[in-house]
Design a protein that fits this description.
Chitinase A, domain 3, peptidyl-prolyl cis-trans isomerase activity, rotamase, isomerase, 3 domains, four-stranded antiparallel beta sheet, globular, Triger factor/SurA peptide-binding fold, OMP_Chaperone_SurA
Length: 465
Amino acid sequence: MKIKMKLKYMKFKSSMMLLIATLFAVNTFAQTAKSTPKRLAKVDGIAAVVGSQIVLESDVDRDYLMSQQQGVKVDNKCDFLNDIMLDKMLVDRAKQDTLIKVTQDEVTRQLNSQIEGWVAQAGGEKQILDYFGFRTMAEMKNETKYIVEDNIYARNKREMVVKGADATPEEVRLFFEKHQGELPDVKDEVSLSHIVLFPEVSQENQQKIIDQLKEIKKEIEEGASFTTKAILYSEDPGSASNGGEYKKVSRGKMVKEFDAVAFNLQEGEISEPFKTDFGYHIIKLDKRRGQELDLRHILISLKPTEEEIKKATNKLDSIRLLINDGKMTFKDAALRFSDDKYTKFNSGNLMNQNSGDDRFEKISLPLPMFSAITTLADEDISQVFEDDFENRKALRILKLNKSYPAHKINYEQDYYRIQKFAVQDKERTMLLDWVKRQVGDAYIKIGAEYQSCNFPIDWEKKNVK
């Protein structure tokens, strides 16, 4: 069995896995950012196997040590292993479920969002790279993309398992009375909308990229290594350091323009340059296995000139003025002009992918966003500012929809937040019941060190007579 080393199970609030591991997650990065990097911890064996998924000793050790750093009293590692195994069961079953599809576009979007959050909390890319023990951001993204992909698989399966879970007002009240002392305080939060414009890159500049890729293709066809060229020139953070390689690519995993080219290539063939939202690509098909492809690609992104950036800035500023003058609503402007295809049809409203609602802790916002809204009152719109959005240079304006001052969580102000906690508590019960039903049909092996653990789930069916 091949083991892929993956940086896994960081106890961040931003990790989807924490919705499974614990009801009341806390963000630990700020508390541990100056501690020793954990990526290089010694891997001393396999703690458990759940189906096709492996739990390494280093996964359990990492969670255990980080909890100790938070000041949490922990007697043993059993609970940590149990939660990781629960997660692994979700991932294993999700990858067998034909109804669950995870696209590369979805992985890239989630990966960039999470890393942007980590960088903002750490104070810069250098701090986050030093903490995790990576040399470059490309290297970090190349490794953590597998974590993000597994997180998405687990999240999708979890949503299927707990579908329909709800809490009545009476259940919410009883939950709050029981757990009031355990619930976290509410920090300064904001809800935001945005409009994004990508500078329009001229046909002349686009043609330069096309010509560069054609020259690279020509050199490869004359004997140069595609792998080497990808390492040197590709700007895809998910594959560049690995020679542009993607394995087992099925239809729908990449964006549609990529699929259209890749699935029409013959083995060994290199495509002509083609365009996606990420820039221009060339693909080499290494191997076809039915409807799965092993391939390599080189991406060169579109880079606007200063003049093109200034033109987009002026356009967005004129849109801002129209909104402020009452000649256009923010909702209409987002629908008509925003290049963010995920929010333009929703008034530009930003959703917090970690919490599932529209509130963001103000202090955790990326620095460009934090700076843009610092002096705003509710309903105000920021000045235009430059930002990196979806790995591209972009211009943005933010609307501060509403501010929520820090306060002790209470039933009157935070009913919907408490309701969410109550629903999550019910979901966890549903999830545990589901896992118990899966145990009999899955290959499960627990390492000798953990055989004495009193797990809430009878993983190895020791009590079945």
